[in-house]
Amino acid sequence: MANGRAGELVLPKAKESEAARWSLAALRKLFKNSIVIVVLLAIWEVTPRLGIINITFFPPISQVLATWWQLLLSGDLLDHTAASLSRSIGGFALAIVVSIPLGLAIGWWKPVAEYLNPFLELMRNTAALAILPVFILLLGLGETSKVAIVFYACIFPLLLNTISGVKNVDPLLIKSARSMGLNAVSLFRKVIVPASIPTIFVGIRQAGASSILVLVAAEMVGATSGLGYLIQYAQFSFLITEMYAGIITISVIGLIVNYVLVSLEKRLTGWKQNARE
Amino acid sequence: MAVKISIEHVQKSFRIKRNMGALKEEAQPLSALHDINLEVRQGEFMVIVGPSGCGKSTLLDLLAGLTTPSSGRILLDGKPIAGPNLDRGIVFQQYALFPWKTALGNVEFGLEAKGVGREERRKRAKEYIDLVGLSGFENRYPHELSGGMKQRVAIARSLAYDPEVLLMDEPFAALDAQTRETLQSELLRIWETTKKTIIFITHGIEEAVYLGQRVAVMSSRPGRIKQVIDIPFESRSSEEDLRSNPEFVRLRHEIWELLKDEVVRAQEQEKSKTLDSFKSADARKGVAKHG
Ligand SMILES: Nc1ncnc2c1ncn2[C@@H]1O[C@H](COP(=O)(O)OP(=O)(O)OP(=O)(O)O)[C@@H](O)[C@H]1O
Ligand SMILES: [Mg+2]
Questions:
Q1: What are the recorded GO MF terms, alphabetically (chain B) (predicted)?
Q2: Which of B60, B144, B164, B212 could make an SS bond with B140 (beta carbons 3.0 to 4.6 A apart)?
Q3: Class of the A61-276 domain?
Q4: Is B53 in the pocket of ligand 1 (CB under 6 A)?
Q5: CB A106 within 8 A of CB A159
Q6: ipTM exceeds 0.85
Q7: Is pLDDT above 50 for A277?
Q8: Whole-structure pTM value
């Protein structure tokens, strides 16, 4: 009986320390992930106040956040963000719908891929922003030219990665599937497509990043709404804290987009071996 | 017993494309198989041994219907092979599992191709996972399995859609000695229970003598069947026990005698391959000078 008692006593204790260890690990992870940012924010707060940096051009983060909060309450920030996101997501989605099927087809017909690849490489390495004036000339300053430039910036990384994904499917897997009597269509659907998903996702992430980058720049050049416009307009009007509020919003959006794409990728390619494991 | 597969005067040559500009004219066909004749009986365990590069995998691809012979023909139940089909299953040396599918998903793959319904598919896949001793690992992805386990999955996948013939290309070559021995005896057990015709390719003479009812010895490239040797053991308990059997030792020696020269020749071929390309380039230069 004494033994039983001892056992009962020990058990909750072990559980407690287990939980403690868990939360400790979580804390350590949080610390690792945030320490550098926290330090930088502290520097941002302190240096202007101490006069190390000119406070007019570089207001402390607390002031920037206060402005950001006001912009949010007034609804301005949401309007601009909504304008930017709809352009960015529109162009991005359009690029995905067009270039993934196209890339799959091009990759499948090897000769076509060989002819097209140099052209695609050339287009990808032509900075999208360099072509922006052409888009504005052809499509005007409205929404169309903005969606079009995002579309243009997204389509090449998506196409090139999809093509290379299809071309680099392990021939042994194709052989193995063929030996089980699969016809061309099922082979494509059941082997080629799933095998190229990891590479396609590299393209999706690249496209996601450039969709925001290109859009912000386009909005700075010619627009009357959007976060790029907000930043540019604030700078012209000497509304420095508003400018930084816009910049912070874009960084946060970039982070969120990346996070969403990475978790989607993890879900879809969970079967892949992680080299770091 | 009835003849299951008959290989008649089969030749296979490859046209090799070289990238090096200087050697362009050298695109003459490379003869991989030369006049292969072999009959495999219904339910037989036939082992093919031969030196590296003699065309074993080429022969297996032909049997699978993945490629066609340059001349000659292969009959399955008296009918020429028309292409890949689920009546033949292949197990590759490098497993060839689909990395995005779990062990169970991989075993189901062939069944899906065969048009078996979802529930039946799952049930049968589970049965075969059990058969190869992998129950409990159904939901693992290939990268979470050891080499031996992957090969078990591959074997289960090929058995699950119930082919009449099992073609195995050095399936155990990449495994360590213990795992190989376990899988060898399990393969024999499976063969005895399923009564499938098996064509098994290997480098290993001991493996050949242990597994095969007959062993076909191939010559170095271009591959020919040099001799077919009967292995008369009735029951094979384990390779370990057989090894000390004097009959086993004699057969192993006999096959080794047949293979020895071929292996040496194959190695020379490998070595001279690179040298050759230099030599022929030189020779051409010489001709050009004289001309
Ligand atoms: N698709 C191909 N194109 C050109 N040559 C090929 C092709 N496939 C095989 N060969 C050549 O045919 C010969 C036989 O190849 P094969 O792969 O059948 O040999 P193997 O007996 O299986 O060798 P190993 O034991 O090393 O696996 C080799 O010389 C190889 O270079
Ligand atoms: Mg081989």
A1: ATP binding; ATP hydrolysis activity
A2: B144
A3: mainly alpha
A4: yes
A5: yes
A6: no
A7: no
A8: 0.81
